[in-house]
């Protein structure tokens, strides 16, 4: 049933860790950047030579630069607030309060309004690489969580998405840890094909999947369809925000996904 995939070396399973402190420190330093470093006009010298058209052009360019800097600073501040809001909710996979969801969605909307890449499928190099999920509105609650053993027996580790734009392929890697089996570690890999549908949207088609090792597959065998039903990405995805380190998407089922570029991909 499963097709063996050729992917990156297995990623070590771990509980969700907060975003890299270095990333947040960089954002905070960007927010505190002082605009005083911009070049200043010497109006006495300009008036002496009477080149007011030059002065007007220079003022216009400086104003545009200041506006761009303000947008960047605002986006950095919103990211800091978003990371703060995501603390302690385990990516939202096991639920979050309605107040917390509303807070996160509002911050997501603010970032989307400042998307530096409004036509991401025309700049797929910014989308390529390895991304780690830090928030999703997909949730595993109630009987689903019980059937999958995610209350006590199975621990859900990090979730990654590896995008290969040369092959038009995305591989989702979901890490698990079976505590009752000598801390058996394993993963579910789902391979999907994507095709550009518009300047910001891709259509996604399920290709194949596999759970390794076999012992973990035996654990999920009975509820394998349920597991795939939760994480299967088939449908379409709108890329609503992407920069060097953060990506936001919305799918045809109304879900929101927030991912940060993984540290491995930055090396």
TrEMBL record:
Q: Which residues form the Plastid lipid-associated protein/fibrillin conserved domain?
A: 77-259
Q: Which Pfam families match?
A: PAP_fibrillin
Organism of origin: Nicotiana attenuata (Coyote tobacco)
* UniProt keyword list: Plastid, Transit peptide
Localization, per the record, is: Plastid
Is Flavoprotein given among the entry's keywords?
no
At the top level of its lineage, which domain of life is listed?
Eukaryota
Q: How is this protein annotated for GO cellular component?
A: plastid
Task: State the name under which the record lists this protein.
Answer: Plastid-lipid-associated protein 7, chloroplastic
């Amino acid at each position: 049933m499963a097709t063996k995939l050729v992917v990156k070396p297995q990623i070590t399973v771990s509980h969700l860790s907060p975003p890299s402190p270095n990333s947040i420190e960089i954002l905070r330093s960007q927010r505190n950047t002082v605009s005083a470093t911009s070049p200043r006009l010497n109006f006495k010298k300009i008036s002496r030579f009477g080149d007011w058209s030059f002065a007007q052009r220079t003022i216009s360019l400086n104003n545009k630069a200041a506006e761009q800097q303000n947008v960047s600073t605002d986006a950095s501040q919103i990211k800091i607030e978003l990371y703060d809001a995501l603390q302690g909710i385990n990516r939202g996979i096991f639920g979050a309060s309605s107040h917390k969801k509303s807070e996160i969605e509002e911050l997501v909307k603010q970032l989307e309004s400042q998307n530096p890449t409004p036509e991401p499928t025309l700049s797929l190099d910014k989308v390529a690489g390895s991304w780690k999920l830090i928030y999703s509105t997909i949730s595993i609650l109630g009987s689903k969580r019980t059937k999958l053993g995610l209350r006590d027996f199975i621990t859900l580790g990090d979730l990654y998405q590896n995008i290969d734009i040369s092959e038009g392929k995305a591989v989702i890697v979901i890490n698990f840890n079976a505590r009752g089996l000598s801390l058996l570690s394993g993963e579910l890999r789902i391979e999907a094909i994507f095709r550009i549908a518009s300047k910001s949207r891709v259509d996604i088609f399920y290709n194949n999947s596999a759970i390794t090792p076999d012992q973990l597959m035996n654990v999920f065998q009975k509820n394998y369809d349920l597991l795939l039903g939760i994480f299967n990405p088939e449908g379409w995805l709108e890329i609503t925000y992407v920069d060097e380190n953060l990506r936001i998407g919305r799918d045809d089922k109304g879900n929101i996904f927030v991912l940060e570029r993984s540290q491995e991909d930055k090396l």
